[in-house]
Design goal:
CATH superfamily: DhaL domain
Bound molecules: adenosine-5'-diphosphate, magnesium ion
Structural class: mainly alpha
């Protein structure tokens, strides 16, 4: 999200992400059925549909305010543990990023946003949650990685949650039985990242 998206582009991005989440809702729910309560795909679909329904109003705002509004919408509509966490990510990003960020501003804002998720979730990297993807992404941004690399980092970080023992979130209730499955929230972050990167690359 380096450079300013027009309102129309921001709205198109919301539509793209909502369609993506709908298309992958069953997959996300299957992952959550294995190590959680099987609602993650449904939760995300409901939230992103609600976001899309407000696409016009949200996209009329400057970038920072748009991200904050999107985050608030997700808090209110996704539910579960992941709703407040995705919401916190976007709200902090919106608060920190400014309306026309350069790469340095993006990097700083993204790390603050990830830290705010950790604070909200009382969690840290290595516990088999979305943070296991978000922190490697923040590191890749700091290293100056390009968009495609960040997408690849997110995908492999999600994959790397498979052998991890869950020690936070619902999956931690399963103890050793959480091993051998990908974390659903980690998969969501990787999916969304790939779509944002693809959108930004097409836009040039
Ligand atoms: P719930 O667990 O309440 O059913 P979801 O199924 O929508 O909520 O989301 C589960 C995902 O949320 C997990 O896969 C994990 O990535 C993330 N998550 C859960 N608890 C935490 C936490 N404390 N910190 C970070 N991420 C978490
Ligand atoms: Mg769940």
């Amino acid at each position: 999200m380096v450079g300013t998206l027009t309102g129309d582009e921001f709205k198109a991005l919301i539509d793209t992400l909502s369609t993506l989440v709908s298309d992958h809702a069953n997959e996300l729910t299957a992952l959550d059925s294995a190590i959680g309560d099987g609602d993650h795909g449904h939760n995300m679909k409901r939230g992103f549909e609600a976001l899309m329904a407000e696409g016009d109003a949200i996209s009329a705002k400057p970038l920072g305010e748009a991200l904050k509004a999107a985050g608030m919408k997700l808090v209110m509509t996704v539910g579960g543990a992941s709703g407040p966490l995705f919401g916190t990510l976007l709200m902090t990003l919106g608060k920190e990023i400014g309306d026309n960020p350069d790469r340095a501003a993006l990097n700083t804002a993204f790390r603050k946003a990830v830290d705010s998720v950790a604070a909200r979730g009382k969690s840290e990297k290595g516990q088999k949650t979305m943070l296991d993807v978000l922190y490697p992404m923040a590191d890749a941004l700091d290293l100056g990685s390009g968009a495609a690399d960040i997408s690849a980092v997110a995908a492999s970080a999600a994959e790397a949650t498979v052998p991890v023992l869950a020690t936070r979130g619902r999956a931690s209730f399963l103890g050793e039985r959480s091993i051998g499955h990908m974390d659903p929230g980690a998969r969501s972050v990787a999916l969304l990242t790939a779509a944002v990167v693809e959108f930004m690359e097409k836009r040039g």
